Amino acid sequence: MTSPDPEPTRTPGLEPGGQVSPGETPPAEGGTYGISHPEPPELRKGWGAMPLTVIIALVVLVAIGLIAMAVAL
């Protein structure tokens, strides 16, 4: 079984004082640039004409029904 914290004097790649020598560690960032997948197309903003027309028609019908119920009382 290996120790998770090895003896610092026997650890390969360390200079005296515990510093890591150049070339012993991988680079900090990869050499690729950009994204790997294409971005999705931009979504349309706002409501279309047909859904707004249907919603307005339903609101008008409900308002007419409420007014008719109030008049019938």
User: What is the C-alpha radius of gyration, as a whole number of Å?
Assistant: 36 Å
Total of helices: 1
Q: Strand tally, please?
A: 0
Order of helices and strands: H
Into which percent range does the helicity of residues fall?
25-40%
State the end-to-end distance: 89 Å
pLDDT below 50 for ≥5 consecutive residues: which ranges?
none
Shape: rod-shaped
What structural class do helix, strand and pairing data support? mainly alpha
User: Major sheet: size, sense and barrel closure?
Assistant: none
**What percentage of the residues does DSSP assign to strands (E)?**
under 5%
Condensed summary:
With 73 residues, this protein is mostly helical. Helices cover 33% and strands 0% of the residues. The protein contains 1 helix and no strands.
Kindly list the characteristics that best describe this protein.
single chain; 33% helix; rod-shaped
3D architecture notes:
The chain has 73 residues and is mainly alpha-helical. 33% of the residues lie in helices and 0% in strands. The protein contains 1 helix and no strands. The protein has one helix at residues 49-72. The longest helix is centred in the last third of the chain and has 24 residues, at 49-72. It is rod-shaped.
Layout of helices and strands, plus pairs?
Layout: H1 49-72
